[in-house]
């Protein structure tokens, strides 16, 4: 969970292991993202997703996204 103003560049950073959080991970794939018009809204959403209730919500969103991808 995080935010960026340039999603393509952030993905490249993660895939090239230039960020310490993903340096040990391999084959990362983006499976879900949200876009916001204001930085304030993005920060609010990120903080929520890092709470236990937010983590549960995110897990459900990801499960549904994966199931949808299998159908399509």
Using only C-alpha atoms, the radius of gyration works out to 13 Å
Please mark out the parts with pLDDT under 50 across 5 or more consecutive residues, or reply none: none
The percentage helix is 55-70%
**Main β-sheet description:** none
Strand content: under 5%
Mean pLDDT metric: 86
The quaternary organization reads as: single chain
What count of domains describes the coordinates? 1
Total DSSP E strands: 0
Helix count?
3
What do you see in this structure?
With 72 residues, this protein is mainly α. It has one domain (7-71). The chain is 56% helix and 0% strand. It contains three helices and no strands. The longest helix is centred in the C-terminal third of the chain and has 20 residues, at 52-71. The relative contact order is 0.13.
List keywords for this structure.
3 helices; mainly alpha; 72 residues
Concise account of the structure shown:
The chain has 72 residues and is an all-alpha fold.
In terms of topology, how is this protein built?
Elements lengths: L6 H9 L23 H11 L2 H20 L1
């Amino acid at each position: 969970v995080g935010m960026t103003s340039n999603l393509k560049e952030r993905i490249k950073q993660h895939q090239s292991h230039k960020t310490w959080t993903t340096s040990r991970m391999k084959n990362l794939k983006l499976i879900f993202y949200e876009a916001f018009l204001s930085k304030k809204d993005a920060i609010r959403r990120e903080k929520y997703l890092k709470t236990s209730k937010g983590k549960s919500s995110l897990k459900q969103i990801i499960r549904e996204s994966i199931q949808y991808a299998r159908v399509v």
